[in-house]
User: Fold these one by one.
Assistant:
Number 1:
Amino acid sequence: MDAVEAEFVKFARTIEPGLRVALVATHGVDRGLEATNDALVYAWSHWERVRSLDNPGGYLFRVGQRKARRHRLTPRVPWTDVAKNGNPWVEPRLSQALAALSPRQRQVVVLIESYEYTQREVSKLLGIGLSSVQTHLERGLERLRAALRVSDHG
């Protein structure tokens, strides 16, 4: 393995988990995983350009978004009902409530609440301002609470 290839492999191992989580949160499992792979293939094909970017993760997220949109006509796996997959501790209506959020709200809520990303990390990954992250988080959580009929006061 030459130095350029080793540099890319290190980059891909670092960026892939967050990229995958963000794209799966947006497009569902199958399409999100495919978009992640497409974005990493693009990164390798355009490595000279990608490696010089200030926010390569955010850029590759947008590449993955474009790739996923091109495959809209292919069958999509809907949000998995986690309660039916052997996780009785998960609210059965959560999958449906998450699916009802806007894609951006779902991305922000899943990344912050499920994967414990900071708002700053989400801002950088998605290429949006911190105030937008805060707004999407607040609105997404508000919609989830309403859909699940729970209070944020315990």
Note: The helical segments are 3-27, 29-45, 47-50, 56-70, 94-99, 103-114, 119-126, 130-148.
Number 2:
Amino acid sequence: MSVTLVRDCPHCGAEKVAMRPIGQAPVGPNKTTAAFSCNRCNEVLCVSFMHPPKGAGWITSTNTGDFDAVARASNSTVICEYPEKEALEAPESISDAVRRAFVQGLDNARRGHTDAAASMFRKAIDVATRELDPSTAGKLLAARINLLASNGKLTEDLKDWAHLIRLDGNQGAHDDEELTHAEIDQLKDFTRLFLIYTFTLPAQVLARKLAAQP
């Protein structure tokens, strides 16, 4: 058994997952890049590290243990890892409640929990539409979306996006058939765009108007 890397996988989102070495290449007399494969999704994470001139090639079957411990014992230092774990970012100018639901949707989508992701994206739209017009908060989401559109709060395209997110969110919460990763990626993009058009862009326009005033 050779050196094992323990990291959060930037591909599938698994936390502190063991990764097995699949190869290494010397970049110079003091630098090596090693490739590891996630034991959950099999995707690859590369680690570049600096080491003493005689320290290259220590990731072998005769040198076992945790990568970081072996690196310290051999006076090696990790200088970069790639790909980096994607930051979970929400659109600007949205409330904490909407942000929390959207980021939880992103996190579940990255982990492959498609049903949970769909439900959280739907929740983000649910909370966002209540904030767009608090007087509609007591209505069901479908009726609220239509009312916001009829009152000029949503364009026809935004209304269609909101209904799509609502329906896919319902499917994730109630149907036996799981949404595909492609459907979740589309749902994520639609939710992000909905929030940008309804909150981020209006806030930017207002800020520009205020800045232009004498």
Note: The helical segments are 67-73, 96-111, 114-132, 141-150, 156-174, 181-212.
Number 3:
Amino acid sequence: MARGDLVLFEEFANMLGSENFAFENGGDTFKVALFNASRSFTAADASPAYSSTNEVSGTGYDAGGATLASQSYNEASGVATFDAANVTWSQNASGFTGATSALVYDDTNASDMAIGWVDLGSAVSQQDGDVTISWNASGIFTVTVS
């Protein structure tokens, strides 16, 4: 997997049919949280959810991660797209170090259910410079009806 690829959890397909997600702007609050190498994710995780275990910490990083701003969920020609603004943690000499993955989850959901994660490839540090997650130009994820 290349650095920055978003991987959706297999369980997310089931959650789409059994949970009330409100992806549109003004709906649920989705966040992205950063974790060190001691926490790993796989597409087959049975109950993907946010937990603070092995989450990075430091000045300029809030526990639970950053809220995805400017959320949108739109459909055109049978393809629904969830998107949001890119996320940046500005450089901070006392910021986090060792972030290797980023979890996208629904903070409004009582279980903090996760939808996917981003492999950061190698450890990144807020102390070395800005850390930015730039979503794909086609959106964070799409659902295609065929």
Note: Residues 6-144 form one domain.
